[in-house]
Amino acid sequence: MSDTTSARRAPGASRGLHLGRVLGAPVLLAWSWFLAAVVITVLFRPWLASVRPDLGWGTWLVAFAYAVLLFGSVFLHELAHAVAGRASGQRVAAIELNVWGGLTRFEPRIEEDSVRAATTSFVISIVGPVVNLVLAGIGWGAVQFTEVWSVPWLLLMALTFANLALGVINLLPGIPLDGGWALQALLWRATRSQYRGTIVASWVGRLIAVAFVAWSLLTPLLAGRRPDLVTVLWMSAIAIMLWVSAGDAATHAKRARRMETYDLSRVIQPAIAATGDADVEQTLAFADRALTGSGPGAARPVPLIVVLDETGLPFGLLDRHAASQVIAAPGPPAQVRDFVRPFGAWIGVPRDITAPHLLESLTHRPKAEFCLVMDGSTLTGVIDLQEFFDELLAD
Questions:
Q1: Is 238 helix (H, G, I), strand (E, B) or coil?
Q2: Do residue 244 and residue 275 come from a single domain?
Q3: 247 and 335: one domain?
Q4: I want to staple 205 with a disulfide (CB 3.0 to 4.6 A). Which of 126, 174, 218, 249 is the partner?
């Protein structure tokens, strides 16, 4: 499974054990993996005990070894996604192993050529399941040279069929499965609409979720048997994950579509820059003259004043309310630096930047709180990024 990092979250911010780095990205073992390892061990051990009762308590060790080796296959699956993405020029943010298998995160990148982007997405999506099918083939070949019912034979057989199942299931054409993202890429390429491809593939994913539950119930009933409770619960858990993930993908697609046509001028507040030693009364008067029109209905929003430090870099906003009160009172002239409200991290962008490119820029400054809009070397506006996100991501 592959994904991109959120613009509001630092790449690789998942919680878990850091196992190292591959392709410059951290490999994370989420805490939920241990739950999955326990479940797999508990479910696999009874079968081992039935075919190799002589192993005794050793069946627990063999079952746990199977869980570890299975997640080794999952890691190779995710590594294939990462290698394919890196080969296409994308930066890998993190590879994560978790209770549901794994996830490869890529840093967002704006690709102007939609056909090329769709093709890249298809290749990245499809290579993971292909690796599982190749591993299944290798495992089947190795089984032929292994003593029947030996521990290596049992592990190889289990891994062979597990990889076959992982490959086939992940090729099902519904989001969030890899086959779903491949279908999305094909529809994206055919229709030139990433949004339409995501919506269709997410609905197919919901149908697959329902099919998992239906299969666990109807298959035994049609055979005249009662459904197995463990199988029904396991399939239901997978179905819930698929349904929720498909819904999230559809929601994100709607937001991405909104982002493509989002008018940043809606959240850009006009602004000018002022040095800290400037006279505050003169600065306020200049700002109002520069950005306030004349005549009925011509007034523009009250401009913000960004205060520069001694090195010429922005470090805060002028508190107009406090400055106005001091100006009205008798006393010596005050300076701009006396009324500064320091702001946090900021990022500078050109005046003609689009919303998608702004989000891409923010992946490199995930803690930025303000965006300073520049026309060449001249400050023209400020974007409060919290306000931007609240409006852009509102349902």
A1: helix
A2: no
A3: no
A4: 174
